Amino acid sequence: MKAARGLSSTLVLWLLGIVYLFPVLWFVLSSFKPGSELFSLPLTILPETWTTSGYSTAWSRFDFQRYFFNTSVVAVVTTALTVIVSAMTGYAFAKYRAWWLRAFFVCILATTMLPTEVIMPSSFVVVRDLGLYDSLPGIIVPSIITATGIFMFRQYFSTVPDELMEAARIDGVGEITLFVRIMLPLAKPICVVLAIFSMQWRWNDYIWPLLVLRDPNRYTLQVALRSIVGADNIDWPVLLSASVISLLPMVLLFLVFQRQIMDVDINSGLKD
Amino acid sequence: MTAVTTPVSTERPTPTARRKGRRAPVLAPLLFISVAVVLFCLFFLWPGALGLLYSFTSYRGVGALRFVGLDNYVDLAGDPSFYAALTRTALYTVLAVPAHYVAALAIAVLLTSTAAAGKSAARVVFFLPWLISPIVTGVIWRWLFGENFGFVNVLVQAFGGAAAQWQTDGTLALIVVIIAGTWAGTAFNMLLFIAALRNIPRSYLEAAEIDGANSWQRFRRITLPLLGPTSFMVVLLTTIGSMKEFAMIQALNGGGPGTENMLIVQYIYRTGFERANIGYASAVSMVLMVILIVIAVVQLRFDRKSDLS
Fold first, then answer.
1. What ipTM, to 2 d.p.?
2. Taking the model in full, what pTM does it have?
């Protein structure tokens, strides 16, 4: 009886697993097929002739090095700033009491309900008026604050006992030194988790790059991919290969930080 | 720690000094939140206020503001393409939220139940879509559901069916969008549910088992009620996420066929940017903003217990 139940739930689990895995599998395998094989029946799961021609065409026809570079700059710089700003803000929310802190907390909460997509036209005007139009800082600066990051730090810092702060204060440690030297090192695990999340958000971000960037030389990967898929005649071999290439950094990130990602306690964190 | 205890007045403070010492620091927290406050004002408050202002103008991105009063809202009230986008968004949300919820919960339960084998490998499989951007998600499903050489149609034909028009039939196209969205959204919600399921004391379930409750009764009467706060989070986040769905559809079918599956954010984008009608698009933004606020408030009402803060 027990064994039968184990067998049936294993079966259901892996059936679902195949359903979830297959789209990616099909997409990756297709990217290794030559163009002629993509559009000829009968379809085969595995490529009959393996080829990387889609990849070389994608790499040579589109300036992928540049897109990679742009996206990396945006992702890394934004992530660094996000971690610092979220830590400071979350710390203030967790460890200080004032009416204006509570008020600002509500404001941050509201940003999750009112994402940029909703106020797209005026967000664009603001970025333009700030002189950030068509520049990478124009993507970086607006993306720095995320409610999720702030909530993660707030939750973490509120578990740190106040006595620790009191002791440091009695020792004459200033508030800023207290934060930089004592509190921030304590929160290193949160910094890592938020950095991973932020890398994923920014690498895959579409809305701000779409609004801000005009010059193809400054395109990020997502906008570049969209320009391929938005064409009247989609060049599928190139599109498939280019999409697979764009995934690689995220796969690498996952392989390196798998444990941190899967064990993350996101009870209070909201998704961005 | 750099500082050493110095014999300052805190040792034996005078009453005023003590009061001063006890007063909560103001400068430090102000400094800590300053960057976030500036960024919040620049990229949320200002666009919000500006959007409200623009919604009363015929602003086209350049030139002086020309106020038109409530014209934009009046036009909006009689704009069939606005209603079409809004109702399509509502339909998508109503269908997508249960799909997201059931898929994530079912998988989380399977992954935490002790009976199934190969759970850690399966968890990686289900998590994989989280790594994939909305644009690439759209590409993947567009490829799978291609009308002529898409895998799904070839499979359907192999079993004697007729090729379905996944791109040219509006209803089928919406179904593909829902499937793709659910596939992409499962990972994150699943993690939320797994964390919550692990917090349910095993003793509750064991006690119920001894009392003769079958596994469905245990799930229905114990697990599900205890998942309440997490369910609330998932439903709220998925609702907001569905209402602002944009990037994935851009790559999947561009809101097609035609504009049949154009959701509200795409409508804003098209009006504001492709037609440079920022004033009118801002009015749509304000309407969407009010709708989102109402949804959030209503859902918060429904679940007072859950502590979002």
1. 0.90
2. 0.88
